[in-house]
Amino acid sequence: MRLPLIAGNWKMNTTIEEAKVLISNLAKPLDGIINVEILICPPFISLKAVSELLQNSSIKVGAQNMHYENKGAFTGEISPLMIKDICQYVIIGHSERRQYFNDDLYINNKVKAAIKYGIRPILCIGEKLEENQSGRTIEVLDSQLEQALTGVEDVATLVIAYEPVWAIGTGKSAGAEQANKTITTIRKKLGSLYNEEIASDVRILYGGSTSADNIAEFASQPEIDGALAGGASLKPEQFISMVSQTSAIYNRKKK
Q: What is the CATH number of the domain that holds 61?
Protein backbone atom coordinates (compact mmCIF):
# COMPACT_ATOMS: atom_id res chain seq x y z
CA MET A 1 0.00 0.00 0.00
CA ARG A 2 1.07 3.57 -0.68
CA LEU A 3 2.08 5.37 2.52
CA PRO A 4 -0.24 8.35 3.04
CA LEU A 5 1.19 11.85 3.17
CA ILE A 6 -0.30 14.81 5.01
CA ALA A 7 1.46 18.02 3.99
CA GLY A 8 0.98 21.47 5.46
CA ASN A 9 1.51 24.47 3.19
CA TRP A 10 1.83 27.54 5.41
CA LYS A 11 1.87 29.87 2.39
CA MET A 12 2.84 33.50 3.24
CA ASN A 13 2.11 33.16 6.93
CA THR A 14 4.22 33.17 10.15
CA THR A 15 7.34 35.03 11.13
CA ILE A 16 10.35 32.96 12.18
CA GLU A 17 9.31 33.15 15.83
CA GLU A 18 5.71 32.25 15.01
CA ALA A 19 6.96 29.30 12.96
CA LYS A 20 8.99 28.05 15.93
CA VAL A 21 5.97 28.23 18.21
CA LEU A 22 3.80 26.41 15.69
CA ILE A 23 6.37 23.64 15.30
CA SER A 24 6.69 23.30 19.07
CA ASN A 25 2.93 22.70 19.23
CA LEU A 26 2.99 20.14 16.41
CA ALA A 27 6.17 18.13 16.84
CA LYS A 28 5.56 16.09 19.99
CA PRO A 29 1.97 14.97 19.24
CA LEU A 30 2.89 14.01 15.67
CA ASP A 31 6.27 12.41 16.16
CA GLY A 32 4.89 9.09 17.34
CA ILE A 33 2.79 8.55 14.22
CA ILE A 34 4.80 6.32 11.91
CA ASN A 35 2.29 5.13 9.32
CA VAL A 36 1.66 8.59 7.85
CA GLU A 37 4.38 10.72 6.32
CA ILE A 38 4.11 14.25 7.68
CA LEU A 39 5.43 17.30 5.88
CA ILE A 40 5.62 20.98 6.83
CA CYS A 41 6.25 23.65 4.17
CA PRO A 42 6.94 27.00 5.88
CA PRO A 43 8.03 30.26 4.19
CA PHE A 44 11.62 30.40 2.96
CA ILE A 45 12.80 32.55 5.88
CA SER A 46 11.82 29.84 8.37
CA LEU A 47 13.14 26.77 6.54
CA LYS A 48 16.42 26.60 8.45
CA ALA A 49 14.84 27.21 11.86
CA VAL A 50 12.09 24.65 11.24
CA SER A 51 14.59 22.13 9.89
CA GLU A 52 16.75 22.48 13.00
CA LEU A 53 13.76 22.05 15.32
CA LEU A 54 12.72 18.89 13.44
CA GLN A 55 16.24 17.47 13.14
CA ASN A 56 15.47 14.48 15.37
CA SER A 57 11.88 14.18 14.27
CA SER A 58 10.20 12.02 11.63
CA ILE A 59 8.43 15.13 10.31
CA LYS A 60 9.77 16.23 6.93
CA VAL A 61 10.42 19.77 5.71
CA GLY A 62 9.55 21.17 2.29
CA ALA A 63 9.84 24.43 0.37
CA GLN A 64 6.84 26.12 -1.20
CA ASN A 65 8.62 26.84 -4.49
CA MET A 66 12.08 27.10 -6.07
CA HIS A 67 13.83 28.31 -9.20
CA TYR A 68 15.17 25.74 -11.64
CA GLU A 69 18.64 27.27 -12.09
CA ASN A 70 21.50 26.55 -9.66
CA LYS A 71 22.51 30.20 -9.35
CA GLY A 72 22.57 33.42 -11.32
CA ALA A 73 21.03 36.84 -11.81
CA PHE A 74 17.55 35.92 -10.59
CA THR A 75 16.90 38.47 -7.86
CA GLY A 76 14.56 37.23 -5.16
CA GLU A 77 14.65 33.59 -6.25
CA ILE A 78 15.80 30.49 -4.36
CA SER A 79 17.74 27.72 -6.12
CA PRO A 80 17.64 23.95 -5.54
CA LEU A 81 21.21 24.11 -4.21
CA MET A 82 20.04 26.49 -1.48
CA ILE A 83 17.36 24.18 -0.15
CA LYS A 84 18.49 20.63 -0.92
CA ASP A 85 20.29 20.15 2.40
CA ILE A 86 17.32 21.24 4.53
CA CYS A 87 14.31 20.23 2.44
CA GLN A 88 13.12 16.79 1.48
CA TYR A 89 10.25 18.13 -0.64
CA VAL A 90 9.31 21.14 -2.75
CA ILE A 91 5.85 22.21 -3.91
CA ILE A 92 5.80 22.95 -7.64
CA GLY A 93 3.01 24.50 -9.68
CA HIS A 94 0.66 25.51 -6.90
CA SER A 95 -2.35 27.26 -8.43
CA GLU A 96 -1.42 30.51 -6.67
CA ARG A 97 1.99 30.37 -8.32
CA ARG A 98 0.37 29.66 -11.68
CA GLN A 99 -2.17 32.45 -11.25
CA TYR A 100 -0.03 35.24 -9.80
CA PHE A 101 3.49 34.44 -11.02
CA ASN A 102 2.97 32.79 -14.43
CA ASP A 103 4.63 29.57 -13.26
CA ASP A 104 3.07 27.52 -16.06
CA LEU A 105 6.10 28.47 -18.15
CA TYR A 106 8.61 26.98 -15.72
CA ILE A 107 6.99 23.96 -14.10
CA ASN A 108 8.66 21.35 -16.31
CA ASN A 109 12.12 22.78 -15.61
CA LYS A 110 11.39 22.95 -11.89
CA VAL A 111 10.28 19.30 -11.74
CA LYS A 112 13.45 18.22 -13.54
CA ALA A 113 15.65 20.33 -11.26
CA ALA A 114 14.01 18.98 -8.10
CA ILE A 115 14.52 15.37 -9.19
CA LYS A 116 18.11 16.08 -10.28
CA TYR A 117 19.02 17.37 -6.83
CA GLY A 118 17.19 14.72 -4.84
CA ILE A 119 14.30 16.91 -3.72
CA ARG A 120 10.90 15.23 -3.98
CA PRO A 121 8.55 17.35 -6.11
CA ILE A 122 4.91 17.76 -5.15
CA LEU A 123 3.37 18.66 -8.49
CA CYS A 124 0.10 20.55 -8.12
CA ILE A 125 -2.53 20.34 -10.83
CA GLY A 126 -6.14 21.50 -10.87
CA GLU A 127 -8.87 23.10 -12.91
CA LYS A 128 -10.53 26.48 -12.54
CA LEU A 129 -14.24 26.84 -11.79
CA GLU A 130 -15.21 27.67 -15.37
CA GLU A 131 -13.22 24.70 -16.65
CA ASN A 132 -14.96 22.43 -14.18
CA GLN A 133 -18.40 23.75 -15.06
CA SER A 134 -17.78 23.36 -18.79
CA GLY A 135 -16.77 19.72 -18.38
CA ARG A 136 -13.10 20.30 -19.22
CA THR A 137 -11.56 19.02 -15.96
CA ILE A 138 -9.88 15.93 -17.43
CA GLU A 139 -8.70 17.82 -20.51
CA VAL A 140 -7.06 20.46 -18.30
CA LEU A 141 -5.46 17.95 -15.94
CA ASP A 142 -4.11 15.83 -18.80
CA SER A 143 -2.58 18.92 -20.38
CA GLN A 144 -0.99 20.02 -17.10
CA LEU A 145 0.52 16.57 -16.56
CA GLU A 146 1.90 16.39 -20.10
CA GLN A 147 3.42 19.85 -19.78
CA ALA A 148 4.99 19.22 -16.38
CA LEU A 149 6.37 15.75 -17.12
CA THR A 150 7.69 16.16 -20.67
CA GLY A 151 11.16 14.60 -20.74
CA VAL A 152 10.91 13.46 -17.11
CA GLU A 153 11.92 9.80 -17.09
CA ASP A 154 12.19 9.03 -13.37
CA VAL A 155 9.04 9.78 -11.38
CA ALA A 156 9.79 7.43 -8.47
CA THR A 157 9.94 10.36 -6.03
CA LEU A 158 7.09 12.35 -7.58
CA VAL A 159 3.98 13.22 -5.59
CA ILE A 160 0.95 14.78 -7.28
CA ALA A 161 -1.53 17.03 -5.52
CA TYR A 162 -4.91 17.41 -7.18
CA GLU A 163 -6.17 20.82 -6.10
CA PRO A 164 -9.26 22.11 -7.89
CA VAL A 165 -8.58 25.84 -8.03
CA TRP A 166 -12.17 26.69 -7.13
CA ALA A 167 -11.80 24.84 -3.82
CA ILE A 168 -8.56 26.41 -2.55
CA GLY A 169 -9.16 28.70 0.39
CA THR A 170 -12.87 28.96 -0.36
CA GLY A 171 -14.22 26.55 2.23
CA LYS A 172 -15.61 24.47 -0.64
CA SER A 173 -14.19 21.06 -1.44
CA ALA A 174 -14.87 18.53 -4.13
CA GLY A 175 -16.94 15.63 -2.84
CA ALA A 176 -14.75 12.73 -1.74
CA GLU A 177 -16.17 10.31 -4.29
CA GLN A 178 -15.84 12.85 -7.09
CA ALA A 179 -12.27 13.67 -6.04
CA ASN A 180 -11.45 9.95 -6.01
CA LYS A 181 -12.95 9.57 -9.49
CA THR A 182 -10.86 12.47 -10.81
CA ILE A 183 -7.70 11.12 -9.18
CA THR A 184 -8.41 7.75 -10.80
CA THR A 185 -8.27 9.47 -14.19
CA ILE A 186 -5.02 11.20 -13.19
CA ARG A 187 -3.53 7.82 -12.38
CA LYS A 188 -4.79 6.51 -15.72
CA LYS A 189 -3.03 9.37 -17.50
CA LEU A 190 0.19 8.57 -15.64
CA GLY A 191 -0.19 5.00 -16.86
CA SER A 192 -0.37 6.20 -20.45
CA LEU A 193 2.66 8.47 -19.98
CA TYR A 194 4.71 5.76 -18.23
CA ASN A 195 3.17 2.41 -17.33
CA GLU A 196 0.55 1.03 -14.96
CA GLU A 197 3.08 -0.11 -12.35
CA ILE A 198 4.61 3.36 -12.08
CA ALA A 199 1.16 4.94 -12.03
CA SER A 200 0.05 2.71 -9.17
CA ASP A 201 3.11 3.67 -7.10
CA VAL A 202 2.81 7.46 -7.39
CA ARG A 203 1.07 9.05 -4.43
CA ILE A 204 -1.73 11.47 -5.32
CA LEU A 205 -3.01 13.86 -2.67
CA TYR A 206 -6.17 15.92 -2.54
CA GLY A 207 -6.02 19.59 -1.67
CA GLY A 208 -8.65 22.27 -1.53
CA SER A 209 -10.17 23.29 1.81
CA THR A 210 -9.24 20.05 3.54
CA SER A 211 -9.68 20.07 7.30
CA ALA A 212 -10.17 17.85 10.34
CA ASP A 213 -13.87 17.85 9.52
CA ASN A 214 -13.55 16.27 6.06
CA ILE A 215 -10.18 14.48 5.95
CA ALA A 216 -11.72 11.12 6.85
CA GLU A 217 -13.96 11.26 3.79
CA PHE A 218 -10.98 11.81 1.49
CA ALA A 219 -8.51 9.48 3.24
CA SER A 220 -11.04 6.63 3.06
CA GLN A 221 -11.08 6.72 -0.73
CA PRO A 222 -8.90 4.07 -2.41
CA GLU A 223 -7.02 6.38 -4.79
CA ILE A 224 -6.44 9.35 -2.45
CA ASP A 225 -3.14 9.13 -0.61
CA GLY A 226 -3.46 12.04 1.78
CA ALA A 227 -3.83 15.80 1.62
CA LEU A 228 -2.05 19.06 0.94
CA ALA A 229 -3.56 21.35 3.55
CA GLY A 230 -3.39 25.13 3.65
CA GLY A 231 -5.26 26.98 6.38
CA ALA A 232 -5.76 23.86 8.52
CA SER A 233 -2.00 23.36 8.76
CA LEU A 234 -1.68 26.65 10.64
CA LYS A 235 -3.98 25.34 13.38
CA PRO A 236 -2.20 22.68 15.47
CA GLU A 237 -5.34 20.89 16.68
CA GLN A 238 -6.72 20.72 13.13
CA PHE A 239 -3.51 19.45 11.57
CA ILE A 240 -2.83 16.90 14.32
CA SER A 241 -6.38 15.60 13.95
CA MET A 242 -5.95 15.29 10.17
CA VAL A 243 -2.82 13.18 10.62
CA SER A 244 -4.36 11.05 13.40
CA GLN A 245 -7.52 10.33 11.41
CA THR A 246 -5.49 9.41 8.33
CA SER A 247 -3.35 7.08 10.43
CA ALA A 248 -6.40 5.27 11.81
CA ILE A 249 -7.91 4.87 8.35
CA TYR A 250 -4.63 3.54 6.93
CA ASN A 251 -4.48 0.92 9.69
CA ARG A 252 -8.00 -0.21 8.82
CA LYS A 253 -7.15 -0.43 5.14
CA LYS A 254 -4.17 -2.67 5.89
CA LYS A 255 -6.26 -5.27 7.73
A: 3.20.20.70
